[in-house]
Amino acid sequence: MALRLYNSLTRNKEPFVPIEKGFVGIYVCGPTVYADAHMGHGKTYVNFDVIVRYFRFLGYQVRYVQNITDVGHILDSGEDRILKGAERERVEPMELVERYTRRYFEDMDALNILRPDISPHAAGHIPEQIELVQALLDNGHAYEVNGSVYFDVSSWPEYGKLSGRRIEELEKATRTAPNQEKRHPADFALWKKSSPAHIMRWPSPWGWGFPGWHAECSAMSTKYLGQPFDIHGGGVENKFPHHECEIAQSEAAMGKPFCRYWLHNGMLMIRGEEMHKSLGNFITLRASFQKWPPMALRFFILNSHYRGPLDLTEEAMEAANKGWQRLLGAVNAIQWRLADAPDGDTDSTLLSTLENYRTRFIEAMDNDFNTAAALAVIFDLVRESNTLVNSEKAPTQDTLSSFSKLYHELVEEALGLKLDTEKDSGMVDLSRSLIDLLMSVRQELRQAKEWEMADRIRNGLIKRGVLLEDQADGTSWRLSQAGSPSAKTDVE
Predict the structure, then answer these.
(1) What's the mean pLDDT when you consider all of the chain?
(2) Gap between the Cα atoms of 390 and 404, Å rounded
(3) Which of 202, 354, 448, 456 has the fewest beta carbons closer than 10 A?
(4) What is this structure's pTM?
């Protein structure tokens, strides 16, 4: 089955056909860097990171562009988010931008999200945005009033084709006081006149000012990906007005389609409610990392389909963390057995079984990047590898390596769940030595008839996933349920 994805523009699941064979151009709306990234950002950028990773997994060359909004994102109050943040922290606007851009990428790194190929800043692409505005004025789709320029929605009959909203409905739904400069309440700013006191402003043919929020994404996406390009992504909350306005201004300016496929991921919920500071349920990624491992958070996000909402609760995160630890334990158990596995070829039947897991994984991901179904396949693989690791017949090095390679390919490369196998395998020798030491101490305690202390060591090892088997010729040990013993030496 070839890759099929849900196109928000056509409201259908469609086969993916790139504009250029073997190449995919992807643009995703990036953060407005006025404060720390929150859990909603985590969901969005994990979702699109997996999409980028999967295209590369399939062999495509990907150019991934994700912008940094550092000017023009206006609040309902009329204030620029960056200027408001700079005032809050008593710093220069660009100082605020630098601070939170760096912190944003640090948070993304913690979630093992690949850096975009290009991260253009809105403030660094003012000439391109002015050029876009001028093109819209020249072809009659925009008008200038007192140094500000607005897009005329009545000049573009297709306005609303992404969101399904009609201009007449938008006029009735307008809640804020009408802007007297606008011809229609749904008209949106392409360029805003600024006062001399406004720090972030640039000269333009219409006077000093700054671009509207929507202009940056049109200008930067087409600059680096061309028009049309393959995929535009972002949160469902940006479908209207941001993405709707992008389509209108881009297609009206150039007279051709903006992009082929629109992908929108669902929102993050906190116990069934949208996340808002006013509700007291706002969680930054940095705060969440204090409670849960970043990879457990990533696992939690991937355990649901990207297009659906995701409800964050303590119970859901605890379950996700247990699932992640189980997966990590299975992978590490393979590393443990590799240390002393005998030579030999992989059984041909087993190789066929592993290829079947790979095929099922691809089928799940080809179905609109269904990571939840893909993880279900991974846990079938976990059961298979646990059975192998705990079998009485020692698996060969080639067999264990085949499992390890498949885990790396599917879990780490395609899903981006960082397994840290190099780090963990580096602990194998130390952990084995500690287990052997405890077994030696236990044997001495048994010889001294200190049964209570000997049993305490045995029970402590069992809790850590290590089973001891006392036999006539000595005691051996093995992992139970793919346990991953740590190097802790305290025994309960």
Answers:
(1) 89
(2) 16
(3) 448
(4) 0.86
